[in-house]
Amino acid sequence: MEIIKTALCSYGLSGKVFHAPFINLHPGFELIGSWERSKKLIQEDYPDVKSYSSLEALHLFGMPNAVFADMRITRAASQIDDYFELILYYEKLRVKLKASFLVREPVPSYIIHGTKGSFLKSRADAQEDKLRAGMKPNTYDWYTEPESEYGLLHAEKDGKVIREKVKSSQGSYLGYYDAMYQSIVHGQPIPVTAEDGINVMQIIEAAIKSSNEQKVIAV
């Protein structure tokens, strides 16, 4: 039987994930890793599984041709990698992803440089802050980005150099669940496919191998 590799999400953040026993009971499945914050929790049940921080989705640029990664522990008390930097290699561009627990001063979440200018964005979304504050996402203006979070565009437009703030489109987590409903009930395309999950796991596997072997890994 061919082995099917899988991974767990948020193990240790929301309790033991419901499908973990399924993996234990079926020899056709192999657990390769887990997104979690406590190495102890995952290794009690899966001692041979690697732990790592979650990787952002690849939907903006698609699958790269190769990956280079540096992953390590920077805090004395940490049991898992708490720092990573990845370079995703595409035919005509490079994409860098990085994260660390040792960052006191926030830096832009998105930094984009092109032939005609640059775009900087402080963070992707602040809906989670509103949810933690007890607000409900059921109003027409549920998440309207405050001006302090606007992106900065410094570029050339119509032959002139501009430097201006750019407001993001209105965000809403509910759009995902509406799309799932439409997919289940009416057969519409699913918003996040199994292939998307497989692609993320391929990148994570390549990143771990790259960091261990200190070389670029083709994907």
Secondary structure layout:
Elements: E1 4-11, H1 20-25, E2 29-36, H2 39-45, E3 50-52, E4 66-72, E5 83-89, E6 94-100, E7 110-114, E8 117-121, H3 127-132, E9 151-157, E10 160-166, H4 174-186, H5 194-213, E11 217-218
Give a description of the structure.
This protein has 219 residues and is α+β, with helices and mostly antiparallel strands. Strands 6-5-4-11 form a four-stranded antiparallel sheet. It has a four-stranded antiparallel sheet with strand order 7-8-9-10, with no helix packed on it. The protein has a three-stranded parallel sheet with strand order 1-2-3, sandwiched between helices. Helix 1 links the parallel strand 1 and strand 2. The longest helix has 20 residues. It is globular. The two termini are 24 Å apart.
Global structural class = alpha+beta
Biggest sheet features? 4 strands, antiparallel
Which residues sit in consecutive blocks of at least 5 with pLDDT less than 50? 8-26, 50-55
Dominant shape: globular
Number of helices: 5
Average pLDDT confidence is 76
Beta-strand fraction estimate: 25-35%
Features:
219 residues; alpha+beta; four-stranded antiparallel sheet; 24% helix; globular
In short:
The protein is α+β, with helices and mostly antiparallel strands and 219 residues long.
